[in-house]
Amino acid sequence: METIILHKANSRGHADHGWLNAWHSFSFAGYYDPQRIHFGALRVLNDDTVSPGMGFGTHPHDNMEIITIPLEGDLEHKDSMGNVGLIQHGDIQVMSAGTGIYHSEVNKNRDKTLKLLQIWVFPDKQNVTPRYDQMRLDVNARHNKLQQILSPDSGDEGVWIHQQAWFHLGRFDKDVSTSYTIKRPQNGVYAFVIEGTFVLNGQHLEKRDALGIWNVETLELKALSDNAEILLMDVPM
After folding, report:
1. pLDDT tens across 171-203, in order?
2. Within this chain, do residues 232 and 147 fall inside the same structural domain, yes or no?
3. What is the pTM (predicted TM-score) of this model?
């Protein structure tokens, strides 16, 4: 039987650190809600706005798949593997932290804010060799359809992670509909509205609302506004 959880935008955890304005879909740092620890293998979905020239100093991670999707601005990344990169809107970055890495993330620009989504997914294997990858995606390829940006397969579209997970991004004109078939019976989808308004399997979703849904095979999606953008995260439950 179809099971859903609705997370309205204003129900998320919120922390304003001055240089960082962060919204947490799941328990993170100072925000703790026992009902919102994770959604299956999806552990963190942070919606961050970083002030000009500011950022996260060098800090460690291990045994986590970390995905960063910049929404606006330029993110400068440095890590203990020797990677230095600039990640911009249209890019997706992935790190398998595995046995352990250190990295820093800074707003490259001194004159404009940086907006990004950072997502953590539990891996399906522990203590892998750490790795880094980033990819420039064709944003036009998600106009009025769902563009795959992540999968478990290094030969497939987008980046890959150590988990049976698939992510898709779509940007839709008003009144355009599409459907999505969940990849595995053991998976569910956490849908996060980046911009605009949607109806998803009968549920009305506005900007930054999210819907978790499982025990279902197909999602029916319709945009109710122009430039409506949504992220679907298909993960093991």
Report:
1. 999 999 999 999 999 999 999 999 999 999 999
2. yes
3. 0.97
